[in-house]
Amino acid sequence: MRGLRLPGGQELPVLGQGTWGMGERRAQRAAEVAALQRGLDLGLGLIDTAEMYGSGGAEEVVGAAIAGRRDEVFLVSKVYPHNAGRRDAVAACERSLRRLGTDQLDLYLLHWRGSTPLAETLDAFEQLRADGKIRHYGVSNFGPGDMSELFESELGRRSATNQVLYNLTRRGIELDLLPWCREQELPVMAYSPIEQGRLLGEPALRRVADRHSVTPAQIAIAWVLAQDGVCAIPKAATVAHVEQNRAALDIELSTADLAELDAGFPAPPHPVPLEIL
C-alpha cells in the first residue's frame, strides 16, 4: 500500500475505507462489518468514520470490524462542530472511543467549521493528544481562508490533514486549496471520490474504463489517487465492492487517459467556494 507522509513523519495509507451511511440499519450491519474486514484483508487499513454517521452507529460498525485487529488500522473519526469546545470535544472523543472499542484514535478531525473558536477546539485536541487519546488531529471541509486562519497559530500548524470533497466533478480545490496544502506538505483526504455514483455514466469515464477493462468507479478512484498529495476514502458496504475499490489502486492511467478525463471533466476556470456534501 502506497502512503502519504504526515507532517509528523508517519504515513497515511493512500487508499482507505469510508463509512458514511453505515450503521443506519441493523439488518445491514453484518454485511458492513464483513466489507470493512475484507478491506483490512486487502491492506485498506485507513478507515474513516464520524460521530455524525448513523448517530454513532458507523463507529459501532467499525468497532466490530476492527476488534482484535486494531494494529492493522489507521483509525480516523470526526467531531461535530457543536461538540468542538474544550470540554465537549474531550467528552465527544471519549464517546467515540467507547463505540469504536479502542483507547486511541490515529486521527481526530473537526468535521466542519462551526461557531466554536478554532483556538478552543485546538486546545481540546492538544489535550486529547497529550492524554494519549489521539495521535494526530486535523480538520475537514476547510476552505483556503479557513486553512490560512488555522495556520496562524502554532497548534493549528500541527494539523495533519484536511478532508474535503474531491472528485472528477468537484475540482475547484485544484485552483487554490490543493496547491496551498501541497506547499505546506499537508495531505488532502478526498471523500466521495465517485460522487456517490452520480458521475459513473459520463461518456469520458466510460471510454477510459472500457480501455482498461474495469468499471467507471475504479477509474474515478484511480484518477483521485493519481493526484499528488491526495488519498481517497471511498465507501464500500459489500465485500465485492471493497474488492473493486482495492483493484483501483493497481490501475495506471496513461497521459492520454488523463487528458481525456481532463477534457470530459474540466476544472472550473476560476476559484469557487469549497463544495461540501
UniProtKB/TrEMBL annotation:
Gene3D superfamilies attached to this UniProt entry: NADP-dependent oxidoreductase domain
InterPro entries on file: AKR, NAD(P)_OxRdtase_dom_sf, NADP_OxRdtase_dom
GO molecular function: oxidoreductase activity
Active site positions: 53 (proton donor)
Residue(s) at site: Lowers pKa of active site Tyr: 78
Residues of the NADP-dependent oxidoreductase domain: 15-263
A Pfam cross-reference name: Aldo_ket_red
Residues annotated as binding substrate: 111
Name by which UniProt lists this protein: Aldo/keto reductase
Source species of the chain: Saccharopolyspora shandongensis
